[in-house]
From TrEMBL:
This is Putative calcium-binding protein CML17. SUPFAM superfamilies: EF-hand (SSF47473). InterPro entries: CALM/Myosin/TropC-like, EF-hand-dom_pair, EF_Hand_1_Ca_BS, EF_hand_dom. Keywords: Calcium, Repeat. Coiled coil: none annotated.
Length: 169
């Protein structure tokens, strides 16, 4: 199967579908053109997405159209493509502004747990210290105790992608 056989919109979406196809193929260990539920779970996790068991079960049910325990690429695309249009949810400039003007309140170039707690509260989401720690741990991939712009961007795009895929508003 080639990615050129997919019916897509613009060239950017075709490129993203092609990249998904390349990743799909790399996770298809037996090269039979389909992924087991375990392989699909690994593919999802490779995007930095950490679905709950319920979300994963829902996604597997949607993508395994013939309920045989295997997911074909066209089934994956039929679930993902209608919800994800192949464009980034935010531009780099929007992320930069959000990072610097909203989250990095002391303007030191990073988001600390205090910055995050304050910002979330101002946005109407009062979180416990444990919830803030969980968010920090998830976003702080280099383990330095703060979130830099790159980590922030990845976390925001991942969160937007997850909400699109899982139907969370």
């Amino acid at each position: 199967m080639s990615s050129g056989s997919l019916k897509n919109g613009d060239g950017q979406q075709k490129e993203e579908i092609f990249q998904l196809w390349e990743m799909f193929r790399s996770f298809d260990k037996d090269k039979d053109g389909s992924l087991t539920h375990m392989e699909l779970t690994s593919l999802i996790c490779s995007f930095g997405i950490k679905p709950t068991k319920g979300q994963l079960k829902y996604f597997l049910e949607k993508t395994d159209s013939d309920q045989n325990g295997r997911v074909r690429f066209k089934d994956l695309v039929s679930v993902v493509a209608p919800n994800y249009n192949g464009t980034q949810p935010y531009t780099e400039y929007q992320l930069w502004r959000l990072f610097h003007r909203v989250f990095d309140r002391d303007e030191d170039g990073v988001v600390s747990d205090e910055d995050l707690m304050y910002t979330m509260e101002m946005l109407g989401h009062k979180l416990s210290k444990e919830e803030i720690n969980d968010l920090m741990e998830e976003a702080d991939t280099d383990g330095d105790g703060v979130i830099n712009f790159q980590e922030f961007s990845v976390a925001m795009i991942s969160a937007a992608f997850q909400s699109t895929i899982w139907g969370i508003n």
